[in-house]
Amino acid sequence: MSSTIVVAYDGSGSSERAMAFAVERAKAIGGSILIAHVLEWSPYSFLTAEELEERHIRRKEEMARAKQALVDPELAKIAAGGVPVSADIRYGHVAETLIKIAEEAGAIQVVIGRQGQGSFAARFFGSTAGTLVQTCPVPLTIVP
Questions:
Q1: Contact between residue 9 and residue 86 where contact means Cβ atoms under 8 Å apart
Q2: CA dist 43 to 32, 59, 88, 137, Å?
Q3: DSSP codes, 81-118
Q4: Per-domain residue ranges of the chain
Q5: pLDDT in tens, 72-121
Q6: Cβ contacts of residue 52 below 8 Å, gap of 6+?
Q7: Record: fold of 4-143
Q8: What's the predicted TM-score (pTM) here?
Q9: What is the pLDDT of residue 126?
């Protein structure tokens, strides 16, 4: 049985706190961490073929920068602490993509940090945390 904990990580203070919580939990249960970094991506169907190609090039560059600047240092830090760790960097709707990553990994838990203090837009349209609370197929922990 899997003992993988998926942690949404974007380098923010709240994701750092979520990671610290998840690492301690993984140590306690002999589990592993899967760092999930999701870059929001919205396909524009009205773009020309050339414009779409430019977006795909920028997307690859952005993913490479995220890997180098955010994910690789975090992988090294967690591995140095003795916890098995891997990473998954994807584009997509954040909540939906986190759920896919968790399902594919057979995760036992998803851990996210709470971003900001909330806003009218987040309350009206929903937030990543709100969506995950309603749809996450495994236990979800939101770290303040």
A1: no
A2: 33, 11, 20, 26
A3: TT--EEEEEEES-HHHHHHHHHHHHT-SEEEEEPPSS-
A4: 4-143
A5: 999 999 999 999 999 999 988 899 999 999 999 999 999 999 875 455 44
A6: 44
A7: Rossmann fold (3.40.50)
A8: 0.86
A9: 52
